[in-house]
TrEMBL record:
It comes from Pedobacter cryoconitis. InterPro entries: TonB-dependent_transducer, TonB/TolA_C, TonB_C. The lineage of its organism: Bacteria, Pseudomonadati, Bacteroidota, Sphingobacteriia, Sphingobacteriales. Keywords: Cell inner membrane, Cell membrane, Membrane, Protein transport, Signal, Transmembrane, Transmembrane helix, Transport. GO terms for biological process: protein transport; transmembrane transport. NCBIfam families: tonB_Cterm (TIGR01352). This is TonB family protein.
Length: 234
């Protein structure tokens, strides 16, 4: 009976959430500014998935064909968050971008015949310059990738890292910088930000033991790419 009650409660909650979603339609001119139904070039359907956190946006040509789909995490101001897709009036895909909290992560585009014309990835690199933490955006066709992704990278580091004994230190972050070479191997491994000499040494050992990555690609060619890996020490 308890299971049944829980199941019914979940169904009830799902029903409440579904009825609670709000949908609004806005008419837009050719300049994408608010217009009237009679003069619009596009119209936008905004579905509130979770107030203040998630909104599904669908833009349409005046004649009803889908022009764009995407997600906002805020409407005031507009914050693009997630995958966005644009379409030609004939239904073929025009572009696909991915945003993380309004920051462009990657973009792809196609011409009207379906031929791909652009593929770019953007990465916000954590850099240490003159002892200060800074950020820099770089653009590539494809960034180096650790086998299985970043979660697998940190699993590897966690499994291999052995904390030196009898070391007095303050919690912090050791940052290792290195180069992913054209063949995916890890070279020129250095300390960018130190916590303690013994901990730094162990961090260097672990990063030097990393397997090969998928190399970075720029203009269709494998290239050497500078990377940073922060390791939190608590």
């Amino acid at each position: 009976m308890k299971t049944l009650k829980i199941f019914l409660f979940l169904l009830l909650m799902i029903g409440i959430n579904a009825f609670g979603q709000k949908t609004d339609t806005t008419y837009l001119g050719s300049d994408w500014k608010p217009s009237t139904k009679q003069l619009n070039s596009y119209f936008r359907v905004t579905k509130t998935i979770e107030e203040g956190k998630k909104y599904e946006i669908s833009d349409y040509y005046k004649t009803g064909e889908l022009q764009m789909t995407g997600n906002y995490s805020s409407l005031n101001p507009n914050v693009w968050d997630g995958e966005f897709n644009w379409y030609y009036k004939n239904g073929k895909q025009k572009a696909k971008n991915f945003y993380k909290r309004d920051e462009l992560q990657s973009e792809m585009s196609w011409d009207a015949n379906g031929k791909q014309t652009l593929q770019k990835e953007y990465q916000k690199l954590n850099l240490i310059k003159d002892g200060k933490e800074t950020y820099e955006y770089v653009t590539m066709d494809k960034f180096p990738k650790y086998p299985g992704g970043m979660s697998e990278l940190y699993k590897f580091i966690s499994a291999k890292f052995i904390m030196p004994e009898n070391v007095q230190y303050s919690p912090g972050k050791v940052v290792i910088k290195f180069i992913v070479d054209r063949d995916g191997s890890i070279v020129d491994v250095q300390i960018a930000q130190s916590v303690h000499p013994s901990i730094d040494k162990e961090a260097l050992r672990v990063v030097k033991s990393l397997p090969k990555w998928e190399p970075g690609i720029q203009n269709g060619k494998n290239v050497r790419v500078n990377m940073n890996v922060p390791i939190r020490i608590d």
